[in-house]
Amino acid sequence: MQQQHTEADEQTGPTFTAPTHREIVTILGGLMIGMFLAALDQTIVATSMRTIGDDLNGLSLQAWVTTAYLLTATISTPLYGKLSDIYGRKPFYLLAISLFVVGSLLSGTADSMYQLAVYRGIQGLGAGGLMSLAITILGDLVPPRERARYQAYFLAVFGTSSVLGPVIGGFFSGADQIAGIAGWRWVFLVNVPLGLIGLVVITRVLHLPPLRRIEHWIDWPGALALVVGLVPLLVVAEQGRLWGWTSPRALTCYAIGLVGLVAFGLLERRAGADAILPLRMFANRTFSVGAAANTVIGLAMFGGLAVLPLYLQIVRGQTPTEAGLTLIPFTLGIMSGSVIAGQLTSRTGRYKVFPVVGTVLMVAGGLLFSTLGVTTPLGLLFAYSIVFGLGLGLTMQPLVLAVQNAVPVRDMGVATSSSLFFRQMGGTLGTAVFLSILFSTVGTTIGDAIERAARTPAFQAALADPKVAADPDNAPVLALVKGTGGGLSLDDSSFLSGMDPRLATPLLEGFAQSVDLVLLISGLMMLAGVVLTLLMPELPLRNVSGIEGRLADDAALDAAAAPAPAPGVGVTPVGAVQAATADLDATRRVSDAGTGTPPHQEMHRDDR
After folding, report:
1. Which of 27, 379, 402, 532 is the most buried (most CB within 10 A)?
2. How does the record classify its membrane topology (predicted)?
3. For residue 227, what are the β-bridge partners?
4. How much is the pTM?
């Protein structure tokens, strides 16, 4: 392919001065704003969705609002990675923030749930690039060995948002009006000033050198096939519990998704180096093992943690705000783990031990969570949260670092976005599967708990109490015991707060047992994560940043393509090439380890 660069670059070559710690922290401030927007949005909207659905007269459509955001965010993530590798990071990061801000502004003005679903889709188009490009830009600026300690800031944003989301969402959704605007609309409108600040900061402080652009063919057929493959599968993951996993609609989604994924694989193989997700990258053992590990961790982590807020709100009777505050120790664990992993990686250059220890802690945390009951002391819950959060903090950052370090610098964008893509896909699947397990077993566990409680004197006394029989909040359980009801529904669990405690206890115990089952499966599933992290190779960390690596690549290619000097003038052609390619060999030696691709093949790939 023809390479485009400026005339000045041809004469002197672009230069790059590594940023100082202060400059990196300033740039991180802008990147973290974007990441905070994406991470906060997931929790703040979930907390407010019931209020939003009631106000827009479409509570039954709330799942589509969530699904629209999830679809566009998941599908756009690998696109941002690939396109930023070709055309540069900054323009696409600014585009991601802009789309998110526009989608937020539109969502705050929605008059129906259908409008809100469309606007949330626009938000998702921006969210797909906010997190992956932030991590990639950091990789451009900082060598892998130093990168780990800065990535701890990103995980701190993730943890903080998981706590602040329910608190802020509860505040906004609980207010009738703020500044003359319905309270729930501020759930979206609050993103606008934050996003504008992020745009200004990134525009002013992020200055990347002009790198040589390789004119690749954009893999639009592969992108379309990815959409056809993932959209039906994500839809059925979100809606399957309501539709039925073997319903005609679900089976149709499975079939369409399978056809799309097969077509995607064939098209990616044909596209070669131009593919959105180059299949050659799976020949890199670190990348392939990392993809599998991220999927398992997303499956177990997001799936298991999806039921904890339900436990806190239904079994412990907490409000969404209180539930968010109860999980603060979880956030402290994430932040502590990420700081420990980052600092020790920077000092020692070793990173494999952290995801291994982290996944072991996540197994332990999941098993400890599976012992939660109606009367479990909050102190124990805090301790379990710290264990699980510490494991998560030790795991997430080193896995991304390992993948970035193992691939050629020109592929760092697509490698980073692919890691997050697999984690998000695992999280989507895990949430669907584990919530399905929860609600498919809760009827049986509650029935068994009521049967056990029915033999106790306290329960018998409650059944015989006329005041209990007259209270409508007790009607669901009384009908279930007498066999006159159509079954117990937890779609609206508000009746539990007013129910006689003697009747409510077996319901809470049964729900807690189903939550424990989900968390037990989640913990056991993480055993696969332990095995995968043990299988991951540990390669020496590069001492050059992504930009420095790309500049070295360009210099070596120029030297290799330069005409030989006249006899007796200057150095010999062999000496010139060897001198110019020395840095390239040094920076690539690690990249090509385990891939089976000699360095010269990578050079020819970029020339196509």
Report:
1. 402
2. Multi-pass membrane protein
3. none
4. 0.78
